[in-house]
Design brief:
The structure holds 2 protein chains of 2 kinds. Chain A is mainly alpha-helical. Chain A has a single domain (about 1-315), classed as ABC transporter involved in vitamin B12 uptake, BtuC, CATH 1.10.3470. Chain A has helices at about 1-35, 40-55, 65-70, 80-105, 110-135, 165-185, 190-205, 210-235, 245-260, 265-285, 290-305, and strands spanning about 60, 75, 145, 150, 155, 160-165. In chain A, strands 1-2 form a two-stranded antiparallel ribbon. A two-stranded antiparallel ribbon of chain A has the order 3-4. In chain A, a hairpin with a 3-residue loop joins β5 (about 155) and β6. In chain A, α1 packs antiparallel against α8 (about 210-235) and α1 runs antiparallel to α10 (about 265-285). The longest helix of chain A has about 35 residues, at about 1-35. Chain A is globular and about 55 Å long. By secondary structure, chain B is mostly helical. Chain B has a domain at about 35-75 and about 80-305. Chain B has 16 helices and 8 strands. A two-stranded antiparallel ribbon of chain B has the order 1-2. In chain B, strands 3-4 form a two-stranded antiparallel ribbon. A two-stranded antiparallel ribbon of chain B has the order 5-6. In chain B, α3 (about 75-95) packs across α14, α4 (about 105-120) packs across α11 (about 265-295) and α14 (about 325-335) packs across α16 (about 370-395). Chain B is globular. The chains are: A mainly alpha, B mainly alpha. The interface of A and B includes residues 110, 121, 123, 127 and 286 of A.
């Protein structure tokens, strides 16, 4: 019984944690390299979720502007595999545009202005989606087959019995993407520049490296990861305009705080710590789950402000 | 920024001096204008006409435009003043000390709940303990309890949050606020009535004989008068703080924290005081909100979006000036309560799209007008005044004399 609960917590925690980690990596690396804090990071998750739904299946509409002008259903019905390529690409493009037209004009403005403008942007994205498609909650987009493999339905696991098979696959997919990101940051020249940028961006610039180009790439990569997190997220959770702030922005911030700004490994670790915390508390005392989540973040921020993995220099 | 820069006692004026009047009348005008209380007295006069302008004035405009539904209604005036109190206080924190808090809903919401709870006779329970609420229905006592509680809450939250700066300060205030929100929704439901909302408010008579629902000729309900008086009180206090050496230190903190520290002042203490003061303003607003709405729900009182709304109002109106944020509160409440019910030519039925309009206006303001609507109005006024001065001077064809009002020590 105890073992059963523990395994269930671990599995749920891994799913939630993988999404938190994907979100946290982008936010953390963007803050670490360019000192830009993006409150619209949750909006990228939201965009990823809705774009995923659009690419994967046809969804019938019952409210919103599109419905009022006679559109009954939207979606391309390309399936999940296609969405796994298209959504990150879409997120990447959105990220490039956002860096060029929103972030760049604010690099030299005070931190408060950056927070305010991205906060407003997050509001706009959420409201545009709500206005277009209505505030309804849509069903998750879990696929039944992926690359010819059956991923739907339950699977028999030892000890805990039947478990939705897709939830295991999604953890695998997310871990693969997280691992890939980690390798890019750790093993490539691009990653080296990014890492150097988190420590001392001025020095990197003086060495003659065109860090601005890396900046746009980092921003776009973070956006692609957040959009991918959105795609994974809506495959097992419902879709509504609020998910950007409730399920993405605030958790991503907490991950940032726990993991430390600018640290990829910290974001991954922080994501899983928080994911398992939430999953555990949801099973043990669901009313307190969110409160404990915030308390963990506040505790880290107060007693270890550089995060569990961050370098001390990043936090003033 | 619009204040004259001083350089050790001598006023340094930049550009054309926007003071066309000389002589006794002009001096009198300037004396009255520069008196600290003039802004409070001016506001008082305006508040007398505010409901009339909002309801009857806009009704006329509405009629002229062919009834698009842009007229105000009576309760809106009270709502604007309630949020006005909050943002005047919030501005002391954001506009002066430069601290961006995303957790002021905590003080607003807690005060609202406390105000409601002390007035009710319900039985509350938490972790097996239970108590019966006292049922104090005097509005002043209710507000006192609510505001006091919010102030006491702001102390520890501020004490912890101010240890971090910038983004981390914002995240910490957000986490504390969200903890309270989830507490009110879940574990604390025995006290707050959770997701059903708290509606057992009993508002008695003010001083034992004034009914807040009673009518006052011309201005409307007695409740409005009550709120307006408290608004003026809050404005006076904030004005005193801003014009005191204490407030000057707040401003200095916003401009260069390190220098303030080098001068030998205790930065932490001043930041904490700014936080606590703004928290008690939010508490006063929350208490009045509870009395005005007679209903408190976690999502309208404690959720972080509410904190975000305070930020939007303050920035929209203009940080760093006493009354600027109140303009923001007005614009915000007008868009959310009136524009949301209208049908616009291009968009059609506005409905829930009001937040989109608000978001767009907000981003535009942050982008091009960091000093907000009020800052923009001041700039326009100065520009026109400057033009007028230039015109007068060229008429007199006298050399542009240095203004005689120079060293008012």
């Amino acid at each position: 019984m105890v073992l059963e609960t523990a395994i269930e917590i671990l599995l749920n925690g891994l799913q939630q944690g993988a999404i938190f980690a994907l979100l946290g990596i982008g936010l953390s690396v963007i803050l670490g390299t360019m000192d830009f804090l993006n409150l619209a990071h949750g909006a990228l998750y939201l965009i990823g979720g809705y774009a995923g739904m659009y690419f994967i299946r046809e969804t019938s509409l019952s409210a919103g502007y599109l419905n009022s002008i006679g559109v009954d259903a939207i979606g391309l019905g390309l399936g999940f595999a296609a969405a796994m390529i298209l959504v990150p690409v879409f997120g990447f493009i959105v990220g490039l545009l956002m860096e060029r037209y929103v972030a760049e004009p604010f690099y030299d403005r005070p931190e408060t202005d950056q927070l305010l403008v991205t906060f407003g942007l997050a509001l706009i994205v959420q409201e545009v989606i709500k206005g277009m498609l209505g505030g309804n909650t849509f069903q998750p987009t879990a696929p039944t087959t992926l690359f010819g493999i059956n991923v739907g339905g339950p699977v028999m696991l030892p000890i805990i019995g039947n478990y939705p098979q897709w939830r295991l696959y999604l953890v695998g997919i997310a871990l693969f993407v997280i691992g890939l990101t980690y390798l890019v940051i750790e093993k490539t020249d691009f990653g080296l520049v990014v890492q150097a940028g988190t420590h001392d961006s001025e020095m990197v610039r003086m060495l003659g490296i065109r860090i601005n180009r890396s900046y746009s790439l980092v921003f776009a990569m973070g956006a692609a990861l957040a959009a991918f997190a959105g795609l994974i997220g809506v495959s097992f959770q419902t879709v509504s305009p609020q998910i950007g702030t409730e399920r993405a922005l605030i958790p991503a911030f907490l991950v940032l705080v726990v993991g430390g700004a600018g640290s990829v490994i910290g974001a991954i670790f922080g994501g899983f710590v928080l994911g398992i915390t939430v999953a555990g508390m949801t099973v043990l005392a669901s009313q307190w789950a969110q409160i404990v989540l915030y308390a963990v973040a506040a505790g880290v921020l107060l007693f270890r402000p550089e995060g569990l993995f961050g370098s001390k220099g990043v936090v003033e | 920024m619009s204040d004259p820069e001083t350089d050790g006692g001598t006023a340094v004026s930049e550009g054309p001096d926007p003071e066309p009047f000389g002589g006794q009348v002009g001096d009198l005008y300037r004396t009255v204008r520069d008196h600290e209380l003039s802004v409070v007295v001016g506001s008082a006069v305006f508040l007398l006409f505010f409901p009339f302008l909002l309801v009857d004035g806009l009704e006329v405009v509405n009629g002229l435009l062919g009834d698009p539904g842009i007229g105000g209604y009576e309760g809106l005036a009270s709502l604007v003043l309630i949020y006005g109190i909050i943002v005047v206080g919030y501005n002391l924190l954001l506009g002066y000390t430069g601290l961006l808090s995303f957790g002021h809903a905590a003080f607003f919401g807690t005060a609202a709940y406390v105000t409601g709870l002390v007035s009710s006779t319900t039985e509350i329970s938490f972790l097996g303990l239970s108590a019966t609420m006292p049922g104090i229905t005097s509005p002043l006592a209710m507000i006192l309890f609510g505001t006091l509680f919010a102030t006491l809450l702001a102390w520890p939250i501020g004490f912890m949050s101010i240890r971090r700066s910038g983004v981390y300060f914002a995240v910490l205030t957000l986490t504390f606020g969200q903890m309270l929100y989830f507490f009110a929704l879940g574990p604390g439901a025995g006290i707050t009535n959770g997701d059903n909302g708290f509606s057992d408010l009993n508002v008695g008579e003010l001083f034992g004989f004034i009914n807040l629902d009673g009518l006052v000729p011309f201005v409307g309900k007695m409740e409005y008068v009550f709120i307006a008086v408290l608004f003026l009180l809050a404005l006076t206090v904030a004005n005193r703080i801003i014009n005191s050496p204490y407030g000057l230190i707040f401003k200095a903190l916003g401009e260069n924290e390190q220098r303030v520290e080098f001068v030998g002042l205790n930065v932490f203490r001043y930041k904490l005081m700014a936080f606590v003061i703004s928290g008690s303003f939010a508490g006063l607003g929350g208490s009045l909100f509870a009395i005005h709405e007679a209903f408190v729900h976690p999502s309208t009182a404690l959720y972080w979006i509410q904190s975000g709304d305070f930020v939007i109002m303050t920035v929209l109106g203009g940080t760093g000036s006493l009354v600027g944020p109140v303009f923001g509160a007005f614009i915000f409440e007008y868009i959310s309560n009136v524009i949301s019910g209208t049908t616009l030519p291009v968009i059609g039925q506005v409905g829930s799209l009001w937040r989109l309009i608000l978001g767009a206006v907000f981003v535009a303001i942050v982008w091009v007008f960091p000093r907000g609507v009020y800052g923009g109005l001041v700039d326009i006024k100065n520009f026109i005044a400057g033009q007028a001065v230039d015109a007068l001077r060229s008429d007199e064809s006298s050399p542009p004399a240095e203004p005689e009002q120079g060293g008012d020590d």
